[in-house]
Amino acid sequence: MTVGRNPSSDLTTLTAAAAIDAMGRAEFTSAELFAAYRAAAVADPLNAYLWVADDAPEPPAEDAPLAGVPLAVKDLFCTEGVPSQAGSKILENYRPPYTASVVERLAAAGAPLLGKTNQDEFAMGSSNENSAFGPVLNPWDRGRVPGGSSGGSAAAVAAGSAPWALGTDTGGSIRQPAALCGIVGLKPTYGTVSRFGMIAFASSLDQAGPLTRDVTDAALLLKHMVGQDPRDCTSIGFPGEIGRPAARSLEGIRLGVPEELTGEGVGIDAGVLETFNATLKLAESLGATVRPCRLPHAQHALSAYYVLAPAEASSNLARYDGVRYGARVENGGLVGMYTKTRSQGFGTEVKRRIMLGTYSLSSGYYDAYYGRAQRVRTKIAEDFRAAFADFDFVVTPTSPTVAFELGAKTADPLSMYVNDYCTVPMSLAGIPAISIPNGLSEGLPTGFQLAGPAFSENAILDAAFALEQAIGFDGAGALERPEARAHQNAGPDAPRRTPK
Ligand code: GLN
Known about the structure:
Structural class: alpha/beta
Low-confidence stretches: 1-9, 482-500
Shape: globular
Largest sheet: 11 strands, mixed
Order of helices and strands: HHEEHEHEHEEHEHHEHHHHEHHEEHH
Bound molecules: glutamine
Number of strands: 11
Helix content: 25-40%
Strand order of the largest sheet: 1-3-2-4-6-5-10-11-9-7-8
């Protein structure tokens, strides 16, 4: 299977699974594939990469299942000797002495590191405009954002400069950029993929997952990501194996549509609702039943998330003190050095979250904010459990809008936070959810989200595969074309690789 307009022209139009098959038939070598992607990554016009590998990797082992298909990795995964900056100036040029477990696992399976991708600073954001290294541009329209915080990974996969990529999702950061770039993004069940070596944002929510051009590739990458890791005490592994999705029908599948996340008043764009409803009709034609379901507390998810995630972030980010690693700004004495290092090293959004988090954890307010948000989180998890008694999956649009223009929401944090209205509930509940491209609105991709109970990844992938085959989404709009090039540098900041 190929993605793109002119499948024969270029190795980079192949999905990872198709490339593995082609290498099995000796049509080209893994070194040729790596060289093709490396050239595309070096030439990337979207500011999607912060670092690209120089050296071709060792050839993969004869029986390596991923056969040498290279992998783009979000900047916040530690990679030994390679800049791992989490999109932040405070970690500029930080080269860790070790590699994240999941990156190691994938390399061992035959997916070598191609490059590190741009992201919102410490994964805080929905548009990639919070990166200290400049925004990433959306390959469908370079005047627009790719979504965030895994925007570099999403843009690279959509534009053909990476076959597949790793992202992380705390409240939507894999699913939302996947939707805005017209690719597949999967947030696994919390705990299935090790967080060891992932630079932390909110530890009880952060999950690594695949960003790929199709559902088959998502399954293939995830298969080699999951597993218990003694170096991460919240890691639980996956019961059984992730299989290759093959379902063609949705016979017997019950889809629940939560009024709370899709109804009037939620503010989902008309064009997004249109493709959502068309996909529901398609699901019915494949044999699914579609009925309304209730998630009574879901409308409070965003409020709870913006107490809990900043609280955890304020604690996790206390380690950047100019002493152990990263930037250090001397200012006469210890406290002066701490203050100056942190005030110069962190960007505005990160500072906002640290302030919010520190406030909600302070003794006088703990019960009113943090404690209450934790109770809301429990209610949301219970809502999903109750829904899954009657439904196989809960479905929503992934993002309320298509990709918006660069700069459109930067002055209004609340309008930015609303991007994750439909993705945050699943994060709080710790359950898996996938976004697949399901059409275009105003010429830009929309995403369809399917969420299931913990460890239902195989069922989700199967249902997503059946839908994907029926939808037949064409991702060619993200590939190089003159209309897109006309928008180059249309954003408030031209792409750049050095911190602002
Ligand atoms: N956009 C959300 C935030 O800014 C989610 C980010 C994420 O999932 N990492 O927190």
